[in-house]
Amino acid sequence: MKKLSFVLTMAFSIFCIATFAVASNIVIKGSTTVLPIAQKVAEAYMKENPDVSISLSGGGSGNGIKAIIDGTTDIADSSRFIKGKEVTLAVEKGVYPVPFRVAYDCIVPVVHPSNPIKNISMDQLKALYKGEVKNWEDIGGPDKKVVVISRDTSSGTYEVWHKKVMKKEKVFPGALLQASNGAVAQVVAKNKFAIGYIGLGYLNKDVKALSVNDVVGSKETTLDGTFPISRPLFMFTQGWPTGDTVKFINYVLHPQKGQKLVGESGYVPLY
């Protein structure tokens, strides 16, 4: 009996070690724009692969790419492409970030549902965010002061807004900065005179999307390029991915799996 007990104990120990060895963890950090996609795909992937555990966090595209360079994440979500200075820093540390385009998105200006404004031009958006237009009445709205909501500089959404809308000019200091798409949507939903901008996947009934230059932000206008604030979304890996990381990336890119979930998340699939 003692021998049998010893054999069973050893067998159980070997089983536990083997189970531990097989189990795998994937860490994903970065863009709050890409986060809903990553969450939905990760949930489906773990259901199909119960031996894999995936942890996700936001923090912005810049923080995600920094985590790839520092080696503290397996995948960095980013709503912008990597900057030249980030590539230089990575190479100096012996890291070679590899980009994977996983979806398309457009950045939609949003206001409170009670705001009568329906369309806005790129020039008007720039003037609002430069602080040159301070009252809604100046662009056909109510005689009320505009509350400008923007993203912090670590945000990939901010980077695209800075490039496409601001033409690389600074947002004025009076803008209220928020750390995520969700936070922007919440603030605008609670303030009748606010304006903000969010990714397509964050649109909801509590905010009103504005068309830009008479073009509605949608999957169709994002794909055909007619909406002026469109962009691709990325996942970066530290070098060419291997193991469960490459399997997850392939799952994200699969037309009938990850890309189907991209569409369900409110974003635009690659195919």
What would you say about this model in short?
The protein has ten helices and eleven strands. It is of the alpha/beta class and 271 residues long.
What is the class of the largest domain in the CATH system? Alpha Beta
What is the CATH homologous superfamily assignment of the largest domain?
Periplasmic binding protein-like II
The largest pleated sheet is described as: 9 strands, mixed
Strand content: 15-25%
Provide the fold topology.
Blueprint: H1 2-22, E1 24-30, H2 35-48, E2 52-59, H3 61-70, E3 75-78, H4 84-92, E4 97-111, E5 119-120, H5 122-130, E6 147-151, H6 156-164, E7 176-178, H7 181-190, E8 194-199, E9 208-209, E10 211-212, H8 219-223, E11 230-238, H9 243-253, H10 258-264
Parallel strand pairs: 1-2, 1-3, 5-10, 6-7, 6-8
Antiparallel strand pairs: 3-11, 4-8, 4-9, 4-11
Helix pairs in contact: 9-10
Tell me what the structure shows.
This protein is 39% helix and 23% strand. The chain has 271 residues and is an alpha/beta fold. It folds into two domains: 2-104 and 232-264, 3-Layer(aba) Sandwich (D-Maltodextrin-Binding Protein, domain 2), CATH 3.40.190.10; 105-230, D-Maltodextrin-Binding Protein, domain 2 (3-Layer(aba) Sandwich), CATH 3.40.190.10. The strands form two sheets. Strands 1, 2, 3, 4, 6, 7, 8, 9 and 11 form a nine-stranded mixed β-sheet that branches. The protein has a two-stranded parallel sheet with strand order 5-10. Helix 9 packs across helix 10 (258-264). The termini are far apart.
